[in-house]
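Recall that a protein's primary structure is simply its ordered list of amino acids. Everything else, from secondary elements to tertiary packing, is in principle encoded there. The following example makes that idea concrete.
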Amino acid sequence: MVPDGATGLGNSGEGMEDATMPMDNVPLLDFISVGTHWEESMAAANHMKGSGQPEGHGASHRPRAALLVMPVLVALLAAAYVAGAVFFSSHFMPGTTFAGTSLAWEPHESLAAACQEACDSYCETFTKGDFSIAITGPDIGLAPNPSSLAADLEALSGNPWAWPAEVLSTRSVASPRKLSYDEEKLAGYVGAQVEAWNKTASPSGAPSVAYVEERESFEVVPGAEGAQMDASAVAAALAQAASALGPGSELGDDVLVAPAADEDTSSLEAVADEGNAMLDLSIPILVNGEEGYRIERGDIRSWLGIADGQITIDEGKIATWVDDVLSPAINYSDSRYEWHTWRDDNTELIVAALRSLSEEPIEAKMFPLLRVPDETPGARDRGRHIDVCLATQYARMYDESGNIIWESFVVTGTPDAVRYTPTGTFAIQAKERNVTLVGADQDGDGEPDYRTPVDYWMPFYAGNGLHDATWRSSFGGDIYIYDGSHGCVNLPYAKAAELFELVRVGDTVYVH
């Protein structure tokens, strides 16, 4: 029996067929549309019925119609709720994203496809210093992991029976919890690039002996890391990042080939002990039996080094130290000589002491140099002139203001009646280059006693002059007494050249 006013459902029974359709094949909006359409039909029917009857008569049927509408509406809402629950039990709700891809309204099976798409599009670069390696998902066979997909699905699905409330919320998984990859493909891909890099990269070193500045001592230190890579460590780092679609980054030091381990370092420790024993030495340097200097750690440290795993002593640095440090500290003068330190002899003594780890005193090897004599009294008041002192075998040139502008040891004539150098006040007669000096025939053989070429000739009196004497190796002292000149003033070559540039014809020469 059909109630009055229910004709809006249609005479063919189509409304009843729709109500019995499987719920999982009917979109939620269709259910809502059916309910709304049914209410609109009922209202229209009642309106038409009431328009053809007196007002009082139509009002008596409204309670019965309302009683019929409410159950149907409730049934429709219940059906819509169940349909939504069934739909969202296999589909994602609005506001669902995975790895940046929207899955709203998509079936749950689309999660695997989205995950595979993220794997296929993965491309990142990893570096370590100058080393760089780029990987893509296909390079290493990156693929969804079933257990990870199940966990991600659970996180993204929500509660389908609470869908009316949950459709308004958002759910997101930034990246998969864990992806699978082809270990063999990864190892082959990474291994080829690491092998090419290692051919030119510096290898790691073995333990060695080094001087540690902080502790001022020689110590056994671990081998230094090189730039060569460990392919398995690089592969592990890339796998960890790629399996979570992680970004490219700078790889850590753990991907470098570790320095070789040397279990027995006793030989290295012996070398370090030798170096430290040298550093601990304290060696006195004696001058005439008295301590003039003491060699300590600060001196020794600059001489020691390490080569081929052994402590080395740099003799060149010691020789320089003798000249620059030891000589100024122990050189001295007496009334006639300046005593200077022999560089080579003292270098040998110091090296021997270091090698034998000896702290026995070393008597410094010294040699005498003629002490520069005092100036001739009143020489600075004579104005511009050359002062030649026969007694000290020393010559100086003064300018107009009495300043010394040149000086040198000399060798003058033998102090006898024939080869002596005349004394007195003279003047430079000429300046000549490349002259051959010809001696008198004092031995009576009909030939000049000598023919001597000189580069710088500055005569001042009767065949006597100042000139270079390259045949002599030393000047000053007592040489003039047993090997003097024939009366000229002999000069070292460099000093003769200097004087030649300074002197002028007519300059006074004072010999005394």
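The two ends are 165 Å apart (CA to CA). DSSP finds 15 helices and 24 strands in the chain.
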